[in-house]
Input
Amino acid sequence: MINNDFKIRKILSGKDNEFLDNQYRNLSGAEHISFIDIIYKKSKKNARNFLKELFKKGNASEELLFLTKRRNKTWFEVKGQKIENELGEIAYIYAKNITKFKEREENLLKDKHLLTTALDEFKSITEKKRIENKIKESEEKYKMILENLKTGYFEVDMEGNFTFVNEAFCKMVKYEKQELYSTNYTSLVIEKNRKKIVKEFNRAIQTGKAITYFKFEGYTKDGEKIIAESNIYLKKKNGEKIGFYGLIRDVTDKVLLENKLKESEIKYRHLFNSAPHGIWLVDLTGKIIDCNDTMNHFLSILTKKDLIGKYYMDVLKIFTRMADIRFEELQKLLRERFMKFLKQGYLEEPFIFEVNRADGKLLWITLESSFINIGDKKLVQVFIRDITKRKLAEKELESLRIELEKRVKDRTIKLESSEKKYRKAYSRTKCFKGLFTHDISNIFQTIGNSIELSDLLLKKGVEINKILEYFELIENQISRGKKLIHNIRNLSEIEESEMPIVPVEIFQNLEKAIKFLNINFQNRNIDVLIESCEEKTYVLANELLLDVFENILINSVRYNKKETVQIKIFLSKITENAIRYVKLEFKDNGIGIDDDLKEKIFQSNIKKRPGTRGMGLGLSLVAKLIELCEGKIWVEDRIKGDYSQGSNFIILIPEAAGL
Output
């Protein structure tokens, strides 16, 4: 222990300074002398610098050559520590005998070869240490990078046992690191994938090539199934294969999303190809990028594959029959419409045109366009519909309209003729009514008076010839009454004389009525079903039977709020009172008829429902017509007891025998 004037205050020895036991004799009595005085002159400068640094900085170390009382030189490695106490600033100096080391060092200096060897060895050791430190530093940086990776990283030996994993890997499989270090990678792979992944590892061993983008299914610690994707590389050391390392990530959500996208694409492609209309996807230059399978229906000798990549104008040339004089005009119109669509983004109405196909078939086509974005591309979606059937139906409808107008005109002429006859009959009826009232009274009065006079004459005994005159008067009056009755009867038979009862085929009239129904209600979904065991059936009726069927069918549609109107017509044959009837039942799913109205609807004085229209025949006249045919008509509930489930109109008409 020394003070700040470098004088030795006390020499200590102890467990930590055992070398002082051997040196104590040499240094005995050295207390209270200067520390510099016991230093050999060669080391005094270093000793002063050591002490200055010690008291200035608080600690210092140095190798110094000490001089004993016997003038022996001894090398010590000294280390000092400054402290402050009640004595002021003092320092403890720890000394270690390094004489043998220094002697060896001197011997080495004497031998240049030995010195060079030692220096080379020292440099080699120093360089090796430096390299090892660099490697260690690099490994630490490498480990730190791996630990901070968001992607899982693992290393396994040649048997597949984990030797290193990062935190991202542990988080993915929900295992602790220490748990994994005693685990084989195959235990994390589902059984059906184990052979596959072992095969891939073996291939990597044989070829030395990496396993890239390898997908497999595995389990986490809690049993949750995951889908992983990994890149695996062979690990070597000094040219020897020692295991594998790789990156791995959980792609479960990605795979599920891809599967959903695939399913969605399959559904879209299915809808695209199964659409009832042809669909083109056209770029903004007019080139067809894609089209659906329905286009095969429009083409004659080509398929949809022949269209893809072509411009729509070129397709029109192929599609249109050669020498079609309308082609140039059609081409011009299509080009103008396409440019207009690109400019304003829409067209007011679809484009309808007629083409003669290459195989000679006539087609009516309508085109509608809209923009659609697929990825980053803006395309034109063209809907192509074959409306040939509709156009043909329109032509047939026009033909039927003309025929119907003719029928209505003929019917109107007949009705006008009948009306004239009825008006004439009505006028005569009014006349005969007055005549009948007056004449029948006179006739009865004359007959009564004649009977009274004859009775009186008989009682008086007057001659028989006189009485016969009164009987002749009575006979004349009776003849007059017969004639009056005959005239009234002729008036009631006018209706029957205009519409004679003849055999009429049922099915022909039903088919015409159904056709008429579909034409007049094209916007309604109507399902009419006829059930019968017979192919042809004749009844005794007249030409207005068609109007009867039309009237009943129209009412079944008009008074029906269902999306699909269902009408079932059942035909059968029955016998009542020895008369063979054809029975027709018209069952619908309409709003039905309340029980209070079931009889009233056939009366002529019932109020007409709002909005009704037809051929001019109401149910009252229908009933009158059926009655003229000596038939019957009534209405029931389609489902007994619940009129709201629809109606069942039942008609009985006498069967025409022998047909």
